[in-house]
Amino acid sequence: MTNSPIEKYLEDIYKRFIKNNDGQLADYIPELATVDPDRFGLVLATADGQVYKYGDTSDEFTIQSISKPFTYGLAISDNGFDYVDRKIDVEASGDAYNEISLDADTHRPKNAMINAGAITSTSLIRAASSEERYERIREFFSKFAARDLSLDQAVYNSELETGHRNRAIAWMLKNFDIIEGNPEEVIRSYFEQCSTLVSTEDLAIMGATLANNGVNPISGEEILDSSIVERILSVMMTAGMYDGAGDWMTSVGIPAKSGVGGGILGVLPGQLAIAVFSPLLDRHGSSARGVAAFETISSDLNLHIMNVNKSASSVIKSIYTIDERPSILRRTTDEEEVLDKYGYKAKVIEAEGDILFSGAETLIRESMKDADDIDIFIYDNTLVKSITDGNEEDIVRKMMYEVGEEKLAQGKRVVIVDPSGRYLDNNTNEDIKVFKSTESALQWAEEKILKKYSDPDVNTSSSIVPINDFEFFTNFDEKQIKDFVDLLKPLSYKNGDKIASVGDENKGIYFITKGKVTASKKEGNNSQNYRRITILIAGMTFGEIALASGDKAKFDIWCQADTELLYLSKGAINKMTIENPSLAAAMWKAIALDGYSLFDRTLRQLSSRVEQEEI
Questions:
Q1: pLDDT, tens digit, 9 for 90 and up, residues 513-525
Q2: Residue 434 near residue 419, CB atoms below 8 Å
Q3: Which of 248, 131, 122 is CA-nearest to residue 186?
Q4: Residue of 380, 376, 378 lying closest to 342 (CA atoms)
Q5: Which of 57, 167, 216, 272 is deepest in the core (most CB within 10 A)?
Q6: Can you spell out the DSSP letters for 236-264?
Q7: Quick one: average pLDDT of 154-162?
Q8: Residue 94 has pLDDT above 70, yes or no
Q9: CA–CA dist 410, 422 (Å, integer)
Q10: Lowest mean pLDDT across 89-93, 134-138, 201-205, 438-442
């Protein structure tokens, strides 16, 4: 995704730590001692397959110990939990990765992340030969990476020649009947497993598959049962970083696995995976740059697993454009035609709940979709409870602001709906419009779309509309219009005046020639709390539906501007019915057509809202 603030953030992390030259290469494997120590790649992949990257992310390196969680999962898939548990414990060992030891009581490896447990996992892969065993492992890893992976023959040969400590572990396992068969064949498969080539992007996708409950988000293939994934991540959390696991979980808080090839993979269940590659290793055998980068990313983005928040998918309540959900402001026919045609250019993203990084990523990604076709972006935070911890320096907030800044730079308009005042307090960019209500934002966006795409002579909401131009008279002839107008009485109101109240007897039909009125209803018992139902503008009428039904007024009618009306009283209607029945018939037909038009418009709006909710 181009221009994503998430990739810009990864670039910042890269530049911050590329000069960190702490650590040393894994020189006990001769081939690994020759790699370029300056290579550095960072990739973040979401559980639904969105990939953000920066640096040397396509460079291949050997997977080494990061292979252990995946082979452990394949061993369980082949043999079941009970059988594997009789061979490998699930306890945190606190041991170095290459410790030659077994549990004093069970005589089993303490977990599958140290070499003793990993070699045991490799031995449990069902195969007729060591060649078949590695081929199954390679194919399994390839499914996780969503591409065909291969062996680094040079690294394999180097490990085969120098891996005497691992051979000792294999023979120790054989001595305690933990592994079956020839230890030399098992150790060859284990060295091949560790010598499989991956890129940082491959690792991130493999991790995203674990984050997605064993379903690869790129290929869509279910590779492991979710119960096995749960076990893998649990062991990674307690033992994936060896004798540094406690410090890691305290400071970073992401289940992870490192490898002496320079990679680190971290997985947040249901959310995302982070992969980092840099070959210089710390004393625990983990990438020094990688550990530093992980600590910063976790802190900046509030990713610690104990920082519980809703899943990313629950953050977006709905997405719609203003042609799908217009404001309650009744528009002229000309305006409706323009908004029906161009309303898709104003996009509303309605968020809810607590927004941490995974939720912000979803919002940012949605903002980038079809961005070239959108003129106005409305971010509706009405239902948002919190955005991270509210610190001014919070990276997640900065990312979200960067999206808005980028849209402004592209000539777009950015709107935030913020009833809580959160953005009113923090927004320093005057070009970002902030409204207290969604309705106000929708009306503002409609006006901008109308101004940009309407013909200069279109009938707009601010127009003064002569009575002869009302759509009400579409089916009247000239004489009927003149006779009808002669019965009308002019009325004037100031902004804020009340024209009618709930429960009033219907007095007739009102024609708005200038200004704006709103139909409102009280909410609950609070006499000051009104909910606006609709807003009517010049060229529109009110009172006719209640007149036809005989009902009392259901809404309070207020002026939102200085308003001019023409009024047809009940008395005038009765006179018309007696003296000019054909004119009365034309009036009732116009009322019926107006009612049908209103019903049709309301039905379309409701249908659109239902469709959006279902989506």
A1: 999 888 887 766 6
A2: no
A3: 122
A4: 376
A5: 272
A6: HHHHTTGGGHHHHHHHT-S-EEE-TTSEE
A7: 93
A8: no
A9: 25
A10: 89-93
- Mean residue pLDDT of the chain comes to 86
Determine the Cα–Cα distance for residues 289 and 350; give it in Å rounded to an integer. Answer: 38
Q: How many CB atoms lie within 10 A of CB 243?
A: 18
For 105, other C-beta atoms within 10 Å of its C-beta total: 7
Residue among 458, 476, 112, 43 nearest 276 (CA): 43
User: CA-CA distance, 511 to 533, in Å (whole number)?
Assistant: 19
The DSSP line for 578-596 is HH-HHHHHHHHHHHHHHHH
* Residue position matching structure tokens 């901008």: 448
- What does pTM read for this prediction? 0.74
| pLDDT score of 1 | 45
Q: Provide the token pair at 303.
A: 């990713």
168: CB partners within 8 A, 6+ apart:
100
DSSP per position, 253-297: -S-EEE-TTSEEEEEETTTEEEEEE---B-TTSSBHHHHHHHHHH
- In the block, residue with structure tokens 């131009």: 469
- For residue 492 the two structure tokens come to 């004037």
Secondary structure of residue 319 in the 3-state scheme: strand
Residue 613 has pLDDT above 50, yes or no: no
**Token pair in block for residue 327:** 């404001």
Owner of token pair 């039904």: 549
Pick the closest to residue 180 from 75, 98, 91, 110 (CA basis). Answer: 75
Whether the per-residue pLDDT at 79 is higher than 90: the answer is yes
Contact between 141 and 148 under an 8 Å Cβ cutoff? The reply is: no
Predicted confidence (pLDDT) at residue 389 exceeds the cutoff of 60: no
Kindly report, residue by residue over 539-567, the tens digit of the pLDDT: 888 888 777 777 788 888 989 889 999 99
Q: State both tokens at 260.
A: 């002496």
| Under 8 Å between Cβ of 383 and 317 | yes
Strand pairing report for 376-387 and 413-417: parallel
Structure tokens at 179: 């592994």
User: How many residues would you count in the chain?
Assistant: 615
Cα(119)–Cα(286) distance, integer angstroms: 19
pLDDT at 614 over 60: no
Return the percent helix, strand and coil in the chain, to nearest 5.
Answer: 45, 20, 35
Question: CA 518, 519, 520: angle at the middle one, nearest 5?
Answer: 110
Phi and psi, residue 91, nearest 5°: -95, 145
Q: What is the DSSP string of 503-543?
A: TPPP-EEEEEEESEEEEEEE-TT-TT-EEEEEEEETT-EES
Query: Looking at residues 284-305, what average pLDDT do you find?
Result: 91
Report the candidate in 127, 273, 112, 124 with the shortest Cα–Cα distance to residue 204. 273
- The reported pLDDT for the residue numbered 97 is 63
All residues at 6 or more sequence positions from 524 whose CB lies less than 8 Å from its CB, including other chains: none
CA gap 236, 248 in Å, rounded:
11
Q: Is pLDDT at 335 greater than 50 in this prediction?
A: yes
The CB density around residue 155, as the number of other CB atoms within 10 Å, is 24
pLDDT of residue 361: 84
DSSP state, residue 499: E
Cα(239)–Cα(304) distance, rounded to whole angstroms?
17
